[in-house]
Amino acid sequence: MTTVNEKKNWHKQYPDYIPKNIEEIKDDDSLLKYIQNAVKNHSNKTAFSFMGNDLSFKEVDDRSLQLAKFLQNTAGLKKGDTVAMQLPNLPQYPIALFACFHAGLTLTNINPLYTAREMEHQLKSSDAKIIIIFSAFTYKLEQIIENTNLKNIIVTGPADSFSFLKKQAINFIFNKVKKLCPSYNITCTPVYSWQQSLNKNKNDSLNKATISSSDTAVLQYTGGTTGVSKAAVLSHKNILSNIRQIQTYVKNDISKNETVVTALPLYHIFAFTVNLLTFLEYGYQNVLISDPRNTAAFIKTLKKYPWSIFTGVNTLFQSMLNHSDFNKLNFKQVKICIAGGAALQTNTARQWKKTTGVNLVEGYGLTEASPVLCCNLLSNPQEKSIGLPLPSTDIKFIDEAGNKVAQGEVGEIWAKGPQVMQCYLNNESETNKVFHKEGSEIWLKTGDIAYQNEQGFVFIADRKKDMILVSGFNVFPNEVENILIEHKKIAEVAVVGVHSEKSGESVRAHIVKKDPSLTEAEVIKFAKENLVNYKVPRIIKFHTDLPKSNIGKILRRKLKDIN
């Protein structure tokens, strides 16, 4: 158990209700036990709401038990096997998550926007045995399934949590009118509908899983600090610790009944830990938003609920503020608004406070920390700061020579705490790059450059050296470059991030042609075929050569200065 025994300057800023350390997570604690307690204590309360359809805690759990029986008895999964989930924010997500833990399985979240190529990498790397996939994405799975170890597939649609008649109507619009579900033909692997997976083994027995806190709960994929996609191994203890840490920050601002708005995708570690799990214990209603980019429809949904807890990225908050209908909402019941995933712009925070009367506070973390390391105080945030380290979390700031910097000077954030991952899955070399051992202590090198003021508040000075942050998602130049260089007409390529009013940053590609006929449209088309949308370059610049160091390394920083 990581404890911060010595008095740190940030501890002086903690209100009385925030402890220096959280209680130790016991060996027999698990996310399954955490979920079961929530169901037991809040059985008949509404757990999740989606498009006007409500599910109670008991209904979610009952369906999850049915699915868990399928996973064990039909899919033949054993404790520790990996289940891939590629779902937007639907009630099926928490049902499937609960089922995984009931059956003693490990989850890996796949971004629904991934291309077939990106899906294949994660499915193979995680050794997933089954995938629960949204119907609109199944056509991509058809292209790569024979290269994976998948033994079964569960396909779910947008209306699988609704009554029969409403389900038929929604599916007709989704599939026939809007044509959002491309056809697919998978014959090499058994494919089950959502309803089939719930019904097939519902009368069978469930082999109750015995889970310890050290067991792996989630394989959450990240670019880390190098751009190579790899899985952060997060144990039940890691995630439970982060839940407890976050709860110490919010417990003074919440009451018996609150409504959580989940607009960030649940496959993202921020929404997964903070929105889905942290507030589960309190029995709060969670409103799932599948498309927050449709700002008008999103605001219309908010009018229907007494929403009081809301998390998002800077661009989401700004888009809401820019909409004429937003200031017509009732903000009297709003208590907690937290920004994460990307830097919170000062102007956005000020506008939000002026409009809603509630502080918009910034938190900070990374996938490798389950994810939260720091958060601003809800009632008294420091402007432009990511806040204070959470209880049981220690941080320090290290220069390039490996020395601790003086107070107020910038350095790389190194962190340790019970929320820090175990390792990168099957990747010892990358694990060793981000962990630094000092005796019995193990520090995580975050790759983020920051400084800390005398009061202990942390301020980010710069992001990872070359990482591009597009609407809260990490884009690593190496990954995009490695794809683009495969184009037969490209000789050299370098990718950098440039400022974007819409997404914070966008991707710009600098290219030396191999074939003079290469066009901007060709490059973008190729990128879209092989990369998720937010990684696709929005700007293409052609050059006769790229700036390089004396050893031939392309100098991205010089390219960033080009207008």
Could you please describe the fold and organization of this structure?
With 563 residues, the protein is of the alpha/beta class. The chain has 3 domains: 31-211, 3-Layer(aba) Sandwich (Rossmann fold), CATH 3.40.50; 223-462, Rossmann fold (3-Layer(aba) Sandwich); 468-560, ANL, C-terminal domain (GMP Synthetase, Chain A, domain 3, 2-Layer Sandwich), CATH 3.30.300.30. It has 16 helices and 26 strands. The strands form 6 sheets. Strands 2-1-11-10-12-13-14-15-16 form a 9-stranded mixed β-sheet. Helix 4 (116-126) packs across helix 5 (138-144) and helix 8 packs across helix 9. The chain is globular. The relative contact order is 0.10. The model has no long low-confidence stretch (mean pLDDT 92).
What are the main properties of this structure?
single chain, about 575 residues, alpha/beta, Rossmann fold, GMP Synthetase, Chain A, domain 3, 3 domains, nine-stranded mixed β-sheet, globular
Supply the number of helical segments: 16
Secondary-structure-based class equals alpha/beta
CATH class of the largest domain: Alpha Beta
Shape label: globular
**Strand order in the largest sheet:** 2-1-11-10-12-13-14-15-16
CATH superfamily of the largest domain: ANL, N-terminal domain
CATH architecture tag of the largest domain: 3-Layer(aba) Sandwich
Instruction: Compute the number of strand runs.
Output: 26
Radius of gyration: 23 Å
> What is the mean pLDDT?
92
User: In percent terms, what proportion of residues is strand?
Assistant: 15-25%
Largest sheet: 9 strands, mixed
